[in-house]
Amino acid sequence: MSVDAKAGRASLGELADRAIALDLTVPESVGAGFRPYHRFIATFEGAGGAPLRQRRDILRVGPVVGVLAYDPAAACFVLIRQFRLGAHLATGAGELVEITAGIMDAGEEPEAAARRECREEIGVAPRALLPITRFLPTPGVTDEFATVYLGLVDSTAVPDVAGEPGETELTRPFLLPVDAALAGLSAPFPAPFANGFVLIALQWFALNRARVDAFVAANG
Fold first, then answer.
1. Which letter, b or e, does each residue of 26-52 get, where b requires 16 or more Cβ atoms within 10 Å of its Cβ?
2. What local confidence, expressed as pLDDT, does residue 57 receive?
């Protein structure tokens, strides 16, 4: 990567995304399958004020939700194992450890989607939800935008097999003690799990124990 000799020095900034002015073409379909695949051309101001033109192909996913299911009475999380072809192709370990997650239906509110996904993937709905973060899993490739919750559940009602048959989905819920899960965050490289949703949710939990305890106290 070359460096413009005329560029100035970097200055202090803020930890916040921001919008920019740009011209964007209408989406052109370059494939239709499990998810739509669209091509765009974006033109915006580049270095020195010259226009910069980028052609990008984007997998259209849109808003999704995730739930870190937590049973405070049992001091455990309810996680799932689910086959993911992308993980299989990348690492050979395709049966990922995941939190409950899925795409929001059209017109569906995030909390309603979170409760529905829990019913489908771990067999129980949370009695209370606490929004914990939002993030973009892979913004260079897809418009997927995730809202993640902490969900309080009763782990004694969780089956060992779940999933939405109409979506050819198979999930295998399992229980993991909180201490064991958080210990996984400091496991030697390479970590035994690779799912970003799990990593982000567990790190938030580890950093926000006081908020979690207050939420549990307020919701039984």
1. eeeeeeeeeeebbeeeeeeeeeeeeee
2. 97
Query: Tokens at residue 161, please?
Result: 């097999």
Max Cα separation, the chain? 64
* Residues present in the chain in total: 220
Question: Which residue is it, tokens 């489908």?
Answer: 120
State pTM to two decimals.
0.92
What does the angle CA 133 – CA 137 – CA 139 come to, to the nearest 5 degrees?
120
Closest CA to 108 of 100, 96, 116: 116
Q: How confident is the model at residue 5 (pLDDT cuts 50, 70, 90)?
A: low
